[in-house]
Amino acid sequence: MRLLLLIICLFGTACVGQKAVSGTMDDSSEQDSRNLQLVLGDNYSGVEQLEFQVVRDPKTLKNLFLQINKTRKPGLPIPEVDFTEELLLVYCAGTGLGEGRLKLVVIEESPEKITMGLKERITTKKENLNVATTPIYIYKMPVTHKEISFQ
């Protein structure tokens, strides 16, 4: 009987501990939602030239994925975005050797303009440098009426 009571108490405290942990995780994900958030990263976009694009409407997003999915079977799914609250930043790295290791970051922000740039991502994964890739990165961020440029 005592053993059963002890087990019930342990389960009760374990459940309370889990609730506290998940609450702090919600806070950190809310913090991340105010910054750039990676929506899609893939090594094969089919876009052979370097390209940076700001997507503010569903029609432009659909046209982008029509281009990306021309040669992909199955194609990449189009991310769901509420364009009243978010916009997308698309960076196609062009053709290169090896896997993409870059991430998009805010270089500078002023009251009128946001300048985006690239930063090398630290990875422990071993790369295959003999493979030609056309990496694409799609990030979402809160809607802004500032001019967004790429450096």
Automatic annotation (TrEMBL):
It comes from the Bacteria. Residues 1-19 form the signal peptide. Keywords: Signal. This is PrcB C-terminal. It comes from Arenibacter arenosicollis.
